Amino acid sequence: MFRGTFARTKTHTRKPSSDSQSDMFRGTYARTKTHRRKPSSDSQSDMFRGTYARTKTHTRKPRRRKKNEETKPFNTRRRKQIANFAYLWLKLDVIDHIERIAKVTQDIRWWAGNFSDLWGMTLDEGTRYRLGTFRLNRKAVDMTPLGLEDVTLPLRFDAREKWPGLLLPIQDQGNCGSSWAHSSIAVASDRFAIESKGLVKAKLSAQHLISCHQDGQLGCEGGHVDRAWWFMRHVGVVTDECYPYSSGYLTFAGPCRIAINETDRSNVCPSGTVYKADQSFHVTPAYRMRADVSISVM
User: Fold this and answer.
1) Residue in 210, 214, 287, 275 with CA at minimum distance from that of residue 242
2) Cβ neighbourhood burial of 127 (10 Å; 0-12, 13-18, 19+)
3) pTM for the whole thing?
4) Which of 36, 140, 215, 268 has the smallest set of CB atoms within 10 Å of its CB?
5) Of residues 231, 234, 233, 226, the one with CA closest to residue 207
6) Which residue ranges make up each domain of the chain?
7) Which residue, among 213, 203, 228, 71, has the nearest Cα to 140 in the 3D structure?
8) pLDDT tens digits, residue range 83-125?
9) How far apart are CA 89 and CA 285, in angstroms?
10) What HEC string does the chain produce?
C-alpha cells in the first residue's frame, strides 16, 4: 500500500497492481490530477503545476471598474441633491430657531422678518455674503484662560446705559462676508473709547483689515477673528475716515491701498485725507475668559 502511494507520487505510468487497495487510491489520485497530462519525471513540479492549473481555470475575471468620466454625471447630480437638502434643512432650522427665541424673549423682539434688500438672494448667497466668521483655530481654543475671582453681577445690564455715547452703532457689512473684520473692529473701537473714558473715540477701519490682512484670511469670503486681532496688535489699523469701507457694494476685498510697514507708510490716506505717519491704532494681546466662573446675581 505504501509502495503504491509513493509510486503514484513519482509517475503515472506504473503497471496495474494486484493490490486492490493501491489501485483504489491510484485511481482516486488520477481523477484529482488529470487524465490527459503526459508523465513527467519531476513529480513535485507536476503536483504543483496541476494544482495551479486547476486554480487558474476557476479564477474569475476581475470586473472592470468604471472610469471617473462615466460616474462623474451621477456623482454631480448626487452632490447637488445632497447640497439642496442641506440648504433646505439649514433654512428651516434657522427660521425655527429664531421663532423659538422670539417666544421666550418677546421684549427683545427677535423674529424672522422679510427684508426687501434680501429679495432674490438664495440661502447660499446669503451665507456667502452676509456671514464670514470662521471657527477659531486649536491654539486659540486651548489658550490658558484668565484667572478671575468670583464676581457678583447685577440682574440687569445695558451697555448703552453704562457707557453712553461710547459705543459704535452696528455697521452694515453689505454683500461681503466680512463679519470677522467688523466684529473685531467694533470691539477694538469700543474698548479704546471705554478705557480712555471718551478721550479716544475712533471708528477704526474694517476695510484696512479686509484688504491688507491676507495671512490666512479670505477677505469677503471669510476670516478668523483671532488672526484679525493679531494684525491689529502687530501692524495696527487706521481710522475709517482714512480708509473707508467699500467692499459692501464691491462684493470683493480689493487691493491694499495703504502701506503695511511703518517705514513705508506715507501721510496720505486712501480717502485722500492727510494723517500723521504714525497714526495707527494697536491693541493688546487677545485673551480667553473662563467659562466656569462662579457668579451670583444681585
Assistant:
1) 275
2) middle
3) 0.59
4) 36
5) 231
6) 2-57, 72-113, 121-297
7) 228
8) 555 555 555 666 676 666 666 655 655 566 667 777 777 777 7
9) 39
10) CHHHHHHHHHCCCCCCCCCHHHHHHHHHHHHHHCCCCCCCCCHHHHHHHHHHHHHHHHCCCCCCCCCHHHHHHHHHHHHHHHHHHHHHHHHHHHHHHHHHHHHHCCCCCCCCCCCHHHCCCCHHHHHHHHCCECCCCHHHHCCCCCCCCCEEECCCCCHHHHCCCCCCCCCCCCCCECHHHHHHHHHHHHHHHHHCCCCCCCCECHHHHHHHCCCCCCCCECECHHHHHHHHHHCCECECCCCCCCHHHHCCCCCCCCCCCCCCCCCECCCCCECCCCCCECCCCCCCCCCCCCEEEC
Instruction: For 155-214, write each residue's pLDDT tens digit.
Output: 888 998 999 999 988 888 988 999 999 999 999 999 999 999 999 988 999 999 999 998
